[in-house]
# Entry
Amino acid sequence: MARLLPLLALIGCYRPPTLPLIDEVPIVPSGRCASPRNAFVACVIDGDTFDIGECGDGGERIRMLGIDAPEIAHPPEPAECWADNAHTALRQKIEGKNVFLTFDEECTGVFGRTLAYAWLQSGSEELGDLDINYYRFINVEMVQEGHAYIFEEEFGDLLYREDFVAARDLAQALGIGLWGACEVGP
# Structure
């Protein structure tokens, strides 16, 4: 117990880290299912799904690769612990904004949704004749902030597996989000 006291003191003072911004979205190697593209987020459905173009049938439904947020209420089933928080967090991050989508080996999931990584431009800077844009990796942010689990069933050779694992391990160790509020298995 004495060895845990310094860790517990740190957790009490914890502030979520600001994830580093990257200066370009990684362009993935060939062999991926689709080319990267920009898209307007019309509405967020839950903590890991959103529509681009238009909400509902007129748009394209995107399921975020590598993450699994708790399920929102689907009557008669109630919402899972932290589902509303995850939904709100994703809405605040991307709804009504343009995101850059990149893809992995599979482009369509079992429910017909497009599988993608979502990147959000978070600023830009001029360096001489160059304009440099900075991006946030939204899929990893959702895990690191404790709004989503890693979707283990998707993992095989996903490009960013190590990023997801590191984000989850940090959130879990510090009891962030669902890791501190919900009864989570081992």
